[in-house]
Design a protein that fits this description.
CATH topology of the largest domain: Butyryl-CoA Dehydrogenase, subunit A, domain 3
Order of helices and strands: HHHHHHEEEEEEEHEEHHHH
Number of helices: 11
Number of strands: 9
Strand order of the largest sheet: 2-3-7-6
Number of domains: 3
Shape: globular
Radius of gyration: 21 Å
Bound molecules: flavin-adenine dinucleotide
CATH superfamily of the largest domain: Butyryl-CoA Dehydrogenase, subunit A, domain 3
CATH architecture of the largest domain: Up-down Bundle
CATH class of the largest domain: Mainly Alpha
């Protein structure tokens, strides 16, 4: 698989893995149990330049290509899906600003996000609004040179600790995206505990009570919040989540191989039992297939190819569902031990469930992918 990467990308991946192996993997289960990621590890990711890796160099970021960003998401996903989700939402916010921000918004926010001096979070979902983001109800009312924000966002990843929220609310013009700083009077967050997965991701409710936000904080134009701003952010989010799922596949496979080569039942290592080998061969195949789909999506993104959108959705759908299968089989191979918190596969299983819901549920991707298939085949009369 390394041959599919440039020498620079392969070297970057090696460094990401070494970083994750020494600073994250040994602590991932502790974060999971504590339902928190300590600020020190977030600071370390920032100091290593990893949170700003995809921000353009002119704003102090690493200016990396899409494949390299994917490799980073993959290595973080292999170590800790909560921290991978931090990379995802933070880069989504930076990407939305880079794509739709004014020169002054870019100049203000991108250097801070690139250095990780501000952590970004995306606040779109609400208690009654999920897959259909265009139905957001958070109210945005214009008052002179401010917008007044009132509403309740839910499921905001790293909402409990983020500094800058990309919020989508409803103005007279329709869904509208604007940047809201954490210290805005009237903004309050509340941690959501006991989630099934990405339990350390500081996911939160975000309440806005008469928050006054400068009019200059709107991204793009009022009315374009979902179609343009969230659209751009979600496309990148899907890409890094897909790679994060490759990480879950890798971690599930490694844990299963290790366990099957040490656990004995019926007088032999369980790796000798064919049904165990069948689960491992499925994981192995899925991990390779998911990685190749992600690499293809990354290359097409780097080429600004029109097929990148469909390739990203294909990669996300396949990798997320494959990660679900792999993590479930990894628990199965571990037997009772897989049900305990003594082994990481229990965490991987919970994390994998979330992957089929976020950044477009599996069903939403299926609906869209079928549409791509019909479009690619074209009308019958033109075949
Ligand atoms: C851990 C976690 C972190 C999250 N982080 C964020 C975040 O940072 N920011 C944010 O804004 N949101 C976040 N979310 C919310 C996430 O974006 C939503 O969960 C997602 O959009 C799905 O919405 P929903 O959960 O309300 O499900 P619903 O939209 O209510 O869907 C419920 C079920 O119906 C199915 N369904 C819905 N519509 C269709 C359709 N047209 N065709 C077929 N099936 C359909 C879905 O696939 C699903 O199975 C997070 C969620 C979780 C669990």
């Amino acid at each position: 698989m390394t041959g599919a990467l440039t020498a620079q990308q392969a070297q970057a991946q090696k460094e990401f893995r070494a970083f994750a192996d020494s600073h994250i993997t040994p602590h991932a289960d502790t974060y999971h149990r504590a339902q928190r990621t300590p600020p020190q590890i977030i600071r370390l990711l920032a100091d290593e330049g990893l949170l700003g890796l995809s921000v353009a160099e002119e704003y102090g970021g690493g200016g990396c290509d899409a494949v390299t960003l994917g490799l980073l998401a993959g290595e973080l996903g292999r170590a800790c899906s909560s921290l991978r989700s931090l990379l995802t939402v933070h880069t989504m916010v930076a990407h939305a600003i880079a794509r739709w921000g004014s020169p002054s918004q870019k100049g203000t926010w991108l250097p801070l996000l690139a250095r990780g001096e501000r952590i970004g979070a995306l606040a779109v979902s609400e208690p009654g609004v999920g897959s259909d983001a265009s139905a957001v109800t958070t109210r945005l009312a214009r008052d002179g040179d401010h917008w007044v924000v009132d509403g309740h966002k839910k499921w905001t990843t790293y909402g409990e600790s983020a500094d800058l929220f990309l919020v989508v609310g409803r103005s007279a013009e329709g869904p509208t995206a604007l940047l809201v700083e954490r210290d805005t009077p009237g903004l309050r967050t509340e941690l959501i505990e006991d989630m099934i997965g990405i339990r350390a991701s500081m996911t939160a409710h975000v309440h806005f009570d008469d928050c006054r936000v400068p009019a200059g904080n709107v991204l793009a134009r009022p009315g374009l919040g979902v179609s343009h701003v969230v659209g751009a952010a979600l496309d990148l989010g899907r890409y890094t989540v897909a790679w994060g799922c490759v990480g879950i596949l890798d971690a599930s496979l490694e844990a299963s191989v290790d366990y099957a080569t040490t656990r004995e039942q019926f007088g032999s290592l369980i790796k000798e039992h064919q049904l165990v080998r069948s689960m491992i061969s499925n994981m192995y195949t899925d991990a390779h297939a998911a990685r190749l789909l992600c690499l293809e999506a990354g290359r097409l993104r780097d080429e600004r190819h029109p097929g990148a959108l469909a390739a990203t959705s294909t990669a996300k759908y396949f990798a997320a569902t494959a990660a679900g299968r792999a993590a479930a089989d990894a628990v199965q191979i571990h037997g009772a031990n897989g049900c305990s918190s003594d082994y990481p596969v229990q965490r991987l299983l919970g994390d994998s469930r979330v992957m089929e819901i976020i950044e477009g549920s599996a069903q939403l991707h299926q609906v869209g992918l079928a549409e791509y298939a019909f479009q690619e085949r074209g009308p019958r009369s033109e075949r």
